[in-house]
């Protein structure tokens, strides 16, 4: 899809469709008013007659509105004006997109970007409209032999801004929105792919291809024997149970100056999590293909950052492996030595994410990072604690935690902080090794965070548990692309402060 911005009057648009908002009850937005005046009350008449109330998400498609130059006018219900915020705005845009796409307008001029959204400026509104549009049109149908394609799909959407001065802001916002959407799209594609295809080798090939196609990006892939040699006993204990070889995948982007320390993103890339010998129950086990959602997200954020040419040095690493039961798999009771030298008693082979992550977190010390953020579908407990609304955030550095909380509020891809106090560390005590890989019944998300914190003492670090946010179950089953918007926003903010 192509996006533009312009600044003009609704009645002057020579377009297949002009989109304007209607608030509850039957209250035209400013641009709707304008259309109403030139059409000599055509719209207000319809509203008075009861054709539309203005409830959030309502639609009314009109043809040949008097004295206008466009083929159609699409009225979108925006709900109560004083409740109109981030969520309603996104919903209204999404509704406009699906309606336009289904009703034959191949291009349209959208005036919804002029609506007042509490505390949001033009940059925010245009960027989020682009993201919402791209999100709405996303489909993963690579493996369907027949797809129901739209006959006259929406191809070009123009957002109107109030003043000509805002055109440059709008154009920049479109670029930003497209970059983030591209990253989120990449994350969704990778996570939606079936586990027999998206295995560690596939992820490594994707990273290599990305480096070849993008200047300033370098890729490095370490294979299992190299990880073994290096002493990544925790990582390799997970990988060994599978016939599919593990990979440590690294992408580097030098957008900043040579002396600038890098931001490092670490993704959990378990391409399928059967639980290993501590086998998971069968129900919904297919969803464990998304256990590389952290890897998909850091890849997506990396793509977005490179697209935006952000002036930072960014390193993305993916700990990719499959967690399978076999004669070579770890047993509960096994003790392994991590790259850091600390020993771990594996009491549950299903707590594998922290095992591949801990060695990767030690590995990235070599980059002398400014910041390290790991992203992982780490615990089912996080879904119990925070549901699908917020990702779990844990950090050893308050300013970093605040930056992530703020970035989340700004982009709508939110996180909520959980404590990783020393009191919780006790739950990880083992009679036989330096620590156990599980922390018992209570606070499962926190004890997983505490486990990781033992490997991140040398730098400022945050951990995002995305078990609840990376995908959704049910009818719309699939990857969400979260937290690509959050990570992108965080990186943008860093560059602007
Ligand atoms: N990948 C899972 C976490 C998960 C579960 C994500 C459900 C999304 C949905 C992780 O590897 C795991 O199995 N964690 C265990 C940890 C437990 C054994 C301490 C869990 O959450 O049950
Ligand atoms: Mn597991
Ligand atoms: Zn897992």
Brief account:
Helices cover about 35% and strands about 20% of the residues.
Could you say how many structural domains there are in total? 2
Name of the CATH architecture of the largest domain? 3-Layer(aba) Sandwich
Spatial separation of the terminal alpha carbons: 31 Å
Strand order of the largest sheet: 8-9-11-10-14-18-15-16
* CATH topology-level name of the largest domain: Aminopeptidase
List bound small molecules.
ligand BES, manganese (II) ion, zinc ion
Task: Give keywords.
497 residues; alpha/beta; Leucine Aminopeptidase, subunit E, domain 1; Aminopeptidase; 2 domains; eight-stranded mixed sheet; seven-stranded mixed sheet; 20 strands; binds ligand BES; binds manganese (II) ion; binds zinc ion
Description of the molecule:
This protein has 497 residues and is an alpha/beta fold. It has two domains: 2-137, Leucine Aminopeptidase, subunit E, domain 1 (3-Layer(aba) Sandwich); 180-496, Zn peptidases (Aminopeptidase), CATH 3.40.630.10. It is 36% helix and 21% strand. The protein contains 15 helices and 20 strands. Strands 8-9-11-10-14-18-15-16 form an eight-stranded mixed β-sheet, sandwiched between helices. α3 crosses α4 (122-137), α4 (122-137) packs parallel to α5 and α12 packs across α15 (484-496). The longest helix has 26 residues, at 167-192. It is elongated, with a radius of gyration of 25 Å. The structure holds ligand BES, manganese (II) ion (MN) and zinc ion (ZN). Ligand BES is lined by residues 273, 291, 348, 350-353, 377-381, 438, 444, 467.
């Amino acid at each position: 899809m192509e996006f533009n911005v312009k600044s003009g009057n609704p009645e002057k648009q020579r377009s297949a469709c002009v989109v304007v908002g209607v608030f509850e009850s039957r209250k035209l937005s400013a641009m709707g008013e304008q259309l109403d005046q030139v059409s000599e009350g055509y719209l207000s008449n319809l509203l008075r007659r009861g054709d539309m109330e203005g409830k959030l998400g309502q639609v009314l498609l009109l043809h040949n509105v008097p004295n206008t130059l466009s083929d159609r006018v699409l009225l979108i219900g925006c709900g109560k004006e004083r409740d109109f915020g981030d969520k309603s705005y996104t919903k209204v845009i999404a509704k406009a997109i699906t309606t336009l796409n289904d009703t034959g307008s191949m291009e349209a001029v959208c005036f919804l970007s002029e609506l007042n959204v509490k505390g949001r400026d033009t940059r925010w509104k245009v960027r989020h409209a682009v993201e919402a549009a791209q999100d709405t049109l996303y489909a993963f149908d690579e493996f369907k032999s027949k797809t129901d394609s739209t006959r006259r799909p929406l191809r070009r959407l123009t957002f109107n801004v109030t003043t000509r001065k805002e055109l440059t802001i709008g154009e920049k916002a479109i670029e930003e929105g497209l970059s983030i959407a591209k990253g989120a799209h990449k994350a969704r594609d990778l996570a939606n792919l079936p586990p027999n295809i998206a295995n560690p080798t596939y992820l490594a090939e994707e990273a290599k291809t990305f480096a070849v196609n993008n200047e300033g990006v370098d890729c490095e892939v370490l294979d299992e024997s190299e990880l073994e040699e290096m002493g990544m006993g925790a990582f390799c204990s997970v990988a060994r149970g599978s016939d599919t070889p593990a990979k440590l995948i690294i992408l580097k982007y030098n957008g900043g100056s040579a002396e600038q320390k890098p931001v490092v993103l670490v993704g959990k890339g378990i391409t399928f999590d059967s639980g290993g010998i501590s086998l998971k129950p069968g129900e919904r086990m297919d969803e464990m293909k998304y256990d590389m959602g952290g890897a998909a997200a850091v890849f997506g954020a990396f793509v977005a950052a490179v697209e935006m040419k952000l002036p930072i040095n960014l390193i993305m690493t993916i700990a990719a492996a499959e967690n399978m039961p076999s004669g070579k798999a770890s047993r509960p009771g096994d003790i392994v030595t991590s790259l850091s030298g600390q020993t771990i008693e594996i009491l549950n082979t299903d707590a594998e994410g922290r095992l591949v992550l801990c060695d990767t977190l030690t590995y990235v010390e070599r980059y002398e990072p400014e910041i390290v953020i790991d992203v992982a579908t780490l615990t089912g407990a996080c879904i119990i604690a925070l549901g699908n609304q917020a990702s779990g955030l844990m950090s050893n550095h308050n300013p970093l935690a605040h930056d992530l909380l703020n970035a989340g509020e700004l982009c709508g891809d939110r996180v909520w902080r959980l404590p990783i106090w020393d009191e919780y560390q006790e739950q990880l005590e083992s009679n036989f090794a330096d620590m156990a890989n599980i922390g018992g019944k209570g606070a499962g998300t926190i004890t997983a965070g505490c486990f990781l914190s033992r490997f991140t003492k040398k730098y400022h670090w945050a951990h995002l548990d995305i078990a609840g946010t990376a995908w959704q179950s049910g009818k719309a089953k699939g990857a969400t692309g979260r937290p690509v918007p959050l990570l992108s926003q965080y990186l943008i903010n860093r560059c602007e402060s």
